[in-house]
Amino acid sequence: MGRINISFAAVSQKTGKLKAQTEQSLLSNIMGRYDNLQGSLEQSSGMGMDAIREEIEQEKKTVEEVGRFMIELLSFIQESSDAFEHVDVNHEEVMKQFI
To answer: Inter-axis angle of helices 49-98 and 8-21, to 10 degrees?
Structure first.
């Protein structure tokens, strides 16, 4: 269609790869590190430790939300690409009838 040129296979490959990296690196590895840090902080005491623990928990939640947002965004990109591919294929089939 027109001058639009999308490699649908490349979009699928890239979004799949980025989703896997987000799930593995961000949501699995980094969340595990937060859990380890929080476990270590539980053994600590002194002035300000409660505030530090609370801030770490909030940061962990924020990072997890960012990871989930990234996965949702990548899913939306993939769905949009799939929908456009469907439209493109249908357009090509209709145009063949007129050529």
So the answer is: 170
pTM: 0.79
Can you tell me which residue has the tokens 């490959």? 13
Q: Low-confidence residues of the chain, pLDDT below 70? A: 1-2
pLDDT digits (tens, 9 = 90+) for 52-67: 999 999 999 999 999 9
- Dist. CA 70–CA 73, nearest whole Å: 5
